[in-house]
Specification:
cytoplasm; cell membrane
């Protein structure tokens, strides 16, 4: 049982780390000489421009930013609640609250990555002078980490739902 508990804790911490990296790092859309994330656009690694309300599609960017931040916060809260429930729950009870919060984190990261997938071109068209050079690129590792974090948080949420406190 101790090995299973250690695996679940490591899995949850890995999910949180993936969410942090995907939210913070500048590699959602990459090309030869630019990096784009949900916070800024960097051309030639020196000319960085913050994504702000001067863009036409700023509400889309804000939705991605908000849901990624919310997902990360919910994942951390789920871990804290898991630790509390680990010592407070009676034997045989399930970690339902932890599971619900972790599945909400999963939903948030899925919404963020889905919005970015669907509206990426619109986000880049918001400021044609800046984004003309960023149209030829591909999804970066932060975007891929967001989808991997989605899978990890989903599996983690299901594990908590199934897990019963045993000795």
């Amino acid at each position: 049982m101790l090995v299973l508990l250690a695996f679940i804790i490591i899995f949850h911490i890995t999910s949180a780390a993936l969410l942090f990296v995907a939210t913070i790092d500048n590699a959602w859309w990459v090309g030869e000489e630019f990096f784009v994330d949900v916070w800024r656009v960097c051309v030639n690694n020196t000319n960085c421009t913050e994504l702000d309300d001067t863009m036409q599609e700023f509400s889309t960017v804000q939705a991605v930013q908000a849901t990624m931040i919310l997902s990360t916060i919910l994942c951390c809260i789920a871990f804290l609640i898991f630790v509390l429930q680990l010592f407070r729950l009676k034997q045989g009870e399930r970690f339902v609250l932890t599971s619900i919060i972790q599945l909400m984190s999963c939903l948030c990261v899925m919404v963020a990555a889905s919005i970015y997938t669907d509206r990426r071109k619109d986000i880049h068209d918001g400021n044609p002078q800046l984004y003309a050079s960023t149209l030829d690129g591909s999804y970066g590792y932060s975007f891929i980490l967001a989808w991997v974090a989605f899978a990890f948080t989903f599996i983690s949420g299901l594990m908590y739902l199934i897990l019963r406190k045993r000795k």
